[in-house]
Amino acid sequence: MEKPSKDNRRDARIPVSQGVWVAWTSGGPRIVSRVRDLSAGGVFVSTRDPMPVATVVEMLFSLPEGEIRAQGIVRFSDEKRGFGVEFTKINAADRARLLGLLRRLNAGR
Question: How many other CB atoms sit within 10 Å of the CB of residue 22?
Fold first, then answer.
């Protein structure tokens, strides 16, 4: 297990209490998990079967704002809580939807 480094984050993470889920895969079957927190730069995925650090993950979020597809790399993994992903590929339209989601989540806090 690797220690998280909040100093490396460019964007503040917004805690997500419920209702945001992500379908993800690292080449195997697609798994659906709850999102614990989210930022413009990454996401923390709650799962009992986290991916190891440095794993490339494909993600799909289905939201009121529309679908968001992103690719990322696992930067932190905790066997009891899940894993943190830094987004590495996300197109402009999906980034705009992500920023809309972040605005909505921030307004609800």
Answer: 23
